[in-house]
Write a structure and sequence with these properties.
The protein is of the alpha/beta class and 279 residues long. The chain has helices at residues 28-37, 66-79, 99-107, 140-156, 181-197, 219-228, 248-257; strands at residues 42-48, 85-93, 113-117, 120-121, 124-125, 162-163, 200-204, 232-235, 262-267, 270-275. It has a single domain, classed as TIM Barrel (Alpha-Beta Barrel), CATH 3.20.20.140. Helices cover 31% and strands 17% of the residues. The chain has a six-stranded parallel beta sheet with strand order 1-2-3-6-7-8. α4 packs parallel to α5 (181-197) and α5 packs across α6. It starts with 27 loop residues before the first helix and ends with a strand. It binds zinc ion (2 copies) and fe (iii) ion (FE) (2 copies). One fe (iii) ion binds at residues 15, 17, 91, 237.
């Protein structure tokens, strides 16, 4: 990546959390102020969704907090009107068996977009630092294949607008060999499913703040997605206000290098494309 590349005009940052998920800090208004300081003109909140009975854990809001989350986003949207667009989003988990409950939660509220994220392979939340030792007994290629199959299945549900951090499995540095035929086949099948479902992929700067030290997803995935005409949306996955807009320029310049020339904006689950523009 060329560090001297001209910076870009800001695009929406659609991935940020609130303390309801027990591992983030800052009120929505704090994220909004941080966004203004960073020169952004549009953000979207996307806290970890509640999940139905049997799929809960300690890093998401309870169903009883959902209305309060929505009310806080709406209040901030009104308070920052004319200075900053604030979208109402959600980061919903894809876990087989929970689809009906997630679909119902999506149906009954006025989301601007829903990010679908795979954080679990069966019962293992593989991106949870407390579950890192589970990697010890795992075959890395198996984990990547399982992961991509779940991401493909998440797209096929038709529930999601954006596929979150689409190679999160690499978070702690467990890289699959680049020439692994089965991992590459699983990635290709995933991208085909994403294309058929009409989802966008997220480009996320969060990986830069994690042991892997890379943007999600890998440039190879971005290039292939570009060939398939799959659009991208940007997310910092901020868990504190200071992360809002983190490394947006690096993500946008990587997109451009890989043949992607615009990003998505969402309102009421309708997508439009914004061209990447240099300042
Ligand atoms: Zn989180
Ligand atoms: Fe996530
Ligand atoms: Fe997130
Ligand atoms: Zn996330």
């Amino acid at each position: 990546m060329n560090p001297n590349a001209n910076p870009y005009l800001p695009v929406p940052d659609y991935h940020m959390h609130t303390p309801r998920c027990h591992h983030a800090e800052g009120r929505v208004a704090d994220y909004a102020r941080a966004a203004l300081r960073a020169g952004l003109n549009e953000i979207g909140m996307s806290d970890h969704s509640p999940m139905p009975e049997g799929f809960t854990d300690d890093w998401r809001m309870a169903m009883s907090e959902l209305d309060d989350y929505i009310a806080e986003v709406r209040a901030a949207r009104d308070a920052f009107e004319e200075r900053l667009v604030i979208r109402l989003g959600l980061e919903a988990d894809f876990r087989p068996g929970s689809e009906a409950a997630v679909a119902e939660m999506i149906r009954v509220h006025d989301w601007d977009y829903v990010i679908g994220s795979v954080h679990y392979i069966e019962g293992w939340d593989f991106d949870n630092p407390d579950k890192l030792r589970e990697w010890d007994g795992r075959n890395i290629e198996d984990a990547w294949c399982d992961y991509f199959e779940l991401v493909a299945a998440s797209a096929r549900t038709g529930l999601f607008d954006i596929i979150g951090h689409p190679d999160l499995i690499k978070k702690f540095g467990h890289r699959a060999p680049e020439d692994s035929r089965r991992v590459n086949a699983a990635m290709e099948a995933m991208l085909q499913a994403v294309r058929e479902a009409g989802c966008a992929l997220e480009i996320s700067s969060a990986g830069l703040r994690k042991p892997i030290g890379e943007i999600y997803p890998h440039p190879r995935m971005i290039r292939r997605a570009a060939e398939l005409g799959i659009p991208f949306a940007f997310g910092s996955d901020a868990h504190k206000p200071a992360d809002v807009g983190h490394a947006m320029d690096a993500c946008l310049s990587l997109l451009e290098e890989c043949g992607v020339h615009g990003v998505c904006a969402f309102a009421r689950r309708k997508r439009r494309m914004l061209p990447l523009r240099r300042r």
